[in-house]
Amino acid sequence: MVSLESFPEITGSVLTDPDVMAAYAVDHCSPVHGAVPLAVVLAETTEDVAAAAGWCYANDVVIVPRGAGSGLAGGASAIEGCVIISLAKMNAVKEINAQDQYAIAEAGVINADLDRAVREHGLMYPPDPSSFEICSIGGNVATNAGGLRCVMYGVTREYVLGLTVVLPDGRIIRTGRRTVKGVTGYDLTQLLVGSEGTLGIVTEVTVKLRPAPVIPPTTVAASFPDVVSAAAAVAAVVGTGVVPALMELMDRRTLECVEALRPFGLEDETRAMLIGQGSTPEDAAVLAREFEAAGAHYTVVSDDPAEAAELLAVRRAAFHAYEHAGNIFSEDVGVPRSQLPEMFARIEAISAKYGVDIPTCAHAGDGNLHPTLIYPRGEREVPQAIWDAADEVFQAALALGGTLTGEHGVGVLKARWVGEELSDDVLELHRGIKAVWDPKNLLNPGRGF
Ligand SMILES: Cc1cc2nc3c(=O)[nH]c(=O)nc-3n(C[C@H](O)[C@H](O)[C@H](O)COP(=O)(O)OP(=O)(O)OC[C@H]3O[C@@H](n4cnc5c(N)ncnc54)[C@H](O)[C@@H]3O)c2cc1C
C-alpha cells in the first residue's frame, strides 16, 4: 500500500478514518458496494484538486472523483486503494452575470442552490434532476443529468458553456467560453459532459441561464386505468407538436411506494398518473384534451403554483420511496416516445415473468423511463432474477430503438451492457480518447464504458 507521508499540503482536508471514509465509498446504487479507499480528499480549491491528482499520478494511485454521491450507477463508488477526491466543499457560486445570462459555479454547488441564487436576478438554471436538492453541478456535468423541466428546456449539456478541469496528472485546463457562440478548436467541453469522471475532474462550471418564466405554467394531472394508456397519452401529446413544459408518468407500484412513504391520498382506481405542464393555458388545454382522449378517468387543471408543487413533490419522492421499499437496481432506459406504450407493456410482462417488483416512473416527455427493480434490503448480492429481468428490460429498450441510459450514466452498474449499444469500432474510439486524456488509466477506471 502506498504511504500518504509524501501527500502534499492542501487547504482542504484529507480523511483516513475507515468509519468516516465509508460514507464516501458508496452512492445511491444499492448493487455496487464501495471498496476501501486509501484516503478521501475534501478539496476546497482547484489547486487542492490539482495537488491531489498530481500526487496520485506520481504514485500510480487510482482517483475517484465525487460530487454529492447521489448517483444511481455506482460511478462514484470507491475502488480498492483509491483516493476519492470530493468536490462537496467547493460550493460557491462565484459569479452571476445577469446581463450576459451566465453563472460560474464551483463543482460542489447543489443544483437547487444554483437555481435559487440566479432566480434572485430573474433568471433560471433549467436542468432539474429529481435529486436537485442533493446533487452537485459537477456531478450533473459528469453524468449529463436530465430532469423534469428538460423536456422543454433541454438537459445539462445544453447549458454548459465552459469548464475548469484538472487532468489526471494534475494540470489545470480551461475549456469553452462565456459567449453565446464559439467554435475555436474541438469541443472539449461537450466531450467532458457525460464523461462520468473518466477524463478529468471538473472544479468549476460556467453555465448558460435563461430568463425565468413570468407566468407560472398550467398543470394538468390525470388518473389512468392502466399505464399503457397513460403512455399512449404521452405519445399523442408529442404527435400534436405542442412542447410540454413537463410531462412525468408514474405507474401504480410507484404511486403505492410514494403513498407508503408520504401519503397523498392514492385512489383505488388510479393505476397510473400523468402530470403535465403547459407553459401557456392553451398548451395545457391540449394536454388535457389528449389525456382524456387516451382514456383518463379524470383530469385536473390548475394554475396554482402551490398545487403544482404538491403534485410534483409526489413525483420527486419516487426514488426515495423506492429506496424505502428495499434495495434498488435502478434502470434508466430511453426509447423513442412513440414506443413508450410498448416499453411499459414489456416492463409489466418482464415483472410478471420473473416475479420481480419493478415500479416505473418516467420523464415521459423525453421517453426516459426508470424501471426500478426492487429486492429485499437484507440481500447483499443482487439476486439472479434481478439480473435476468434487468437484462430483458435493457434488451427490450434496445430492440425498440432505445438506449441503455438516458441520464444516470453507465457507471459500474451498466458497464456489462455497453457493448450491446456501442459497436466495436465506437468502443475502440472511446478507448483511444481515454488513453490520450488519462494515459495511466488512473481516473475512475472501468466506469462509463
Ligand atoms: C432521489 C434521486 C433522484 C434522482 N433523479 C435524477 C433525475 O431526475 N435525473 C438525473 O439525471 N439523475 C437523477 N438522479 C441521479 C443523480 O442525482 C445524478 O446522476 C446526479 O447528476 C449526480 O450528481 P452527484 O453530484 O451526486 O454526483 P456523484 O454521484 O457524486 O457522481 C456521479 C458521477 O459523476 C462523477 N463526478 C461527480 N462529480 C464530478 C466532478 N466534479 N468531476 C468529474 N466527475 C465527477 C463521479 O465520478 C461519478 O462517476 C437521482 C438520484 C436520486 C438519489
Automatic annotation (TrEMBL):
Pfam families per UniProt: FAD-oxidase_C, FAD_binding_4
UniProt keywords, alphabetically: FAD, Flavoprotein, Oxidoreductase
InterPro entries in the record: FAD-bd_oxidored_4_C, FAD-bd_PCMH, FAD-bd_PCMH-like_sf, FAD-bd_PCMH_sub2, FAD-linked_Oxase-like_C, FAD-linked_OxidoTrans_Type4, Oxid_FAD_bind_N, Vanillyl_alc_oxidase_C-sub2
Sequence ranges assigned to domain FAD-binding PCMH-type in this UniProt record: 33-212
GO MF terms held by the record: FAD binding; oxidoreductase activity
Named cofactor requirement(s): FAD
Protein name, as recorded: FAD-binding protein
Organism expressing this protein natively: Tsukamurella conjunctivitidis
Top-level taxonomy: Bacteria, Bacillati, Actinomycetota, Actinomycetes, Mycobacteriales
